């Protein structure tokens, strides 16, 4: 049986405790690998390796040398594209047709984009007057923050992990990554790519395990971790923030959402249907930016519901290798239980089930997979659990509205503030809505479209801080002020 080990100081190592946990393929229930679970010993070894590497060749490299290596990392991912694709799809159950367009290419791009950015970023410099007339030169330099703890989720494992590791390394830091226990494979594989690309030992370290009372908690509590960057649930973010308070460590938190789509009667309905289908059902609804609440202006409500239903029913459910499949399984049976509990709650709360609401019939060899049907409801009250809580599954509730003000108020009614999508052909309305919606990102007539140089993050309980472009550099560097009296 394959074993997945930690990657510490450039080498794959097992746990001293000998504790292993199962990595299971959600599509067929087969055991993919046994994964070593890190205890405090392994986490400490990884942090020590990361600390030492800051003082080694990595710390002495020029930006040009460092960024060349990161380009080689990106090229290394691309060269081993099929292995990354296989590993990601086995762990998650997502269709290869999706991961080959999004997850793996973005894994490579995250290194190139931030390597190129760091080469071109300027800092301020001022010539100052001084009373003696000689003057002074006051400027700022960016220095790496140090050892960064990276804790990542399971929904887009390689994409979201490299989204943090790419800029952290570009800025000259070293990292200790704790991937989700559900999806350890691509983070582990990246160690081989790092070695082949010439990344010095100790710069990229990986420890596997769970969250509380396991590798995640040990990493966030470790006093020699300088900053923590996290993507995951809001509740976990609160716990991590508390851990980071000890030692006054900085955090970047990308958290949960319950995102609203607003569809005005003046929209291009074809585009609104296509975009809402993607935002509700892509990656089996396991996208933090996905739309789980859809508000539709009353004159087009019935037509919108009927067309979204038709679109959902046309999705092709299948296993990752099925070239026709555009809808995979959920990440695990545990998550499936959670999603199905909301499907039940919707019925209990009196929803009209427009489509789905259960488990699809699958061929015998796939019958044990973590499948659920794409699901649409109408008719629930605004305060129902299904409408207010993040489900993170392939489902949405559609509710009619009558005025622009009402739609904005509904969109803003929850404590989350991650993303929103507005569908309208009226430019003034689009600008007004984008301004008034309380969310870190607002799409107009699109979804999941973003230049990586722009700011990404959530407002309200959906996060703290912004990453992306220079905003990532703000988090992963310390600006040092140097003033030289001439
Ligand atoms: P999660 O919070 O359960 O776990 C995320 C990671 O944190 C995992 O690696 C887990 O092991 C670790 N963890 C859990 N408890 C911990 C603890 N006490 N200390 C340290 N680490 C701990 O989230 P998940 O279920 O893996 O991912 C789904 C969630 O992530 C959803 O809420 C989704 O909205 C959110 N998410 C947000 C974004 C964003 O950019 N805002 C992106 C993707 C996912
Ligand atoms: O595209 C990204 O950079 C990003 N952070 C996406 C987040 C998706 C959430 O599931």
UniProtKB/TrEMBL annotation:
Domain Aldehyde dehydrogenase stretches: 13-482
InterPro entries: Ald_DH_CS_CYS, Ald_DH_CS_GLU, Aldehyde_DH_dom, OHmuconic_semiald_DH
EC number, UniProt record: 1.2.1.85
GO molecular function: oxidoreductase activity
Species in which this protein is naturally found: Geopseudomonas aromaticivorans
Family: Belongs to the aldehyde dehydrogenase family.
Origin superkingdom: Bacteria
Active site location: 254
Keywords: NAD, Oxidoreductase
Record-given protein name: 2-hydroxymuconic semialdehyde dehydrogenase
């Amino acid at each position: 049986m394959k074993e997945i080990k930690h990657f510490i100081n450039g080498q794959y190592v097992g746990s001293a405790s000998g504790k292993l946990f199962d990595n299971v393929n959600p599509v067929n229930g087969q055991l993919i690998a046994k994964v070593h679970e890190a205890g405090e010993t392994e986490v400490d070894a990884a942090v020590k390796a990361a600390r030492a590497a800051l003082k080694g060749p990595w710390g002495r490299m020029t930006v040009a040398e460092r960024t060349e290596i990161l380009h080689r990392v990106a090229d290394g991912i691309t060269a081993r594209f099929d292995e990354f694709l296989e590993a990601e799809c086995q762990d998650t159950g997502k269709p290869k047709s999706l991961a080959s367009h999004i997850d793996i290419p973005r894994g490579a791009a995250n290194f190139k984009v931030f390597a190129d950015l760091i080469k071109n970023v300027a800092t301020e410099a001022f010539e100052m007057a001084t009373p003696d007339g000689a003057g002074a030169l006051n400027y700022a330099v960016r220095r790496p923050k140090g050892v960064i703890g990276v804790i990542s989720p399971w929904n887009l494992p390689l994409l979201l992990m490299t989204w943090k590791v790419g800029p952290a390394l570009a800025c000259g830091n070293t990292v200790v990554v704790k991937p989700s226990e559900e999806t350890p494979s691509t983070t582990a594989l990246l160690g081989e790519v790092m070695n082949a690309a010439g990344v010095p030992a100790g710069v990229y370290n990986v420890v596997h395990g769970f969250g509380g009372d396991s590798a995640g908690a040990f990493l966030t509590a470790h006093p020699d971790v300088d900053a923590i960057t996290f993507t995951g649930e809001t509740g976990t973010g609160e716990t991590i923030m508390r851990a980071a308070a000890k030692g006054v460590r900085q955090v970047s938190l990308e958290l949960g959402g319950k995102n609203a789509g607003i569809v005005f009667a003046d929209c291009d309905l074809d585009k609104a249907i296509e975009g809402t289908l993607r935002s509700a059902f892509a990656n089996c609804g396991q996208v933090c930016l996905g739309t789980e609440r859809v508000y539709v202006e009353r004159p087009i409500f019935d037509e919108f519901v009927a067309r979204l239903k038709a679109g959902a029913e046309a999705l092709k459910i299948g296993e990752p290798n099925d070239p026709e499949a555009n809808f995979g399984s959920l990440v695990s049976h545990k998550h499936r239980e959670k999603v199905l509990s909301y499907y039940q709650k919707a019925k209990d709360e009196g929803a009209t089930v427009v489509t789905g609401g259960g488990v699809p019939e699958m061929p015998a060899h796939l019958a044990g997979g973590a499948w659920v049907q794409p699901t649409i409801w109408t008719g629930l009250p605004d305060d129902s659990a299904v409408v207010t809580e993040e489900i993170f599954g392939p489902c949405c509730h559609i509710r009619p509205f009558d005025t622009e003000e009402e739609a904005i108020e509904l969109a803003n009614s929850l404590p989350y503030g991650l993303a929103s999508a507005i569908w309208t052909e009226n430019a003034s309305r689009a600008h007004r809505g984008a301004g008034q919606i309380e969310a870190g990102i607002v799409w107009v007539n699109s979804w999941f479209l973003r230049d990586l140089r722009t700011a990404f993050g959530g407002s309200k309980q959906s996060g703290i801080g912004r990453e992306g472009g220079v905003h990532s550099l703000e988090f992963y560097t310390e600006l040092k002020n140097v003033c030289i009296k001439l």
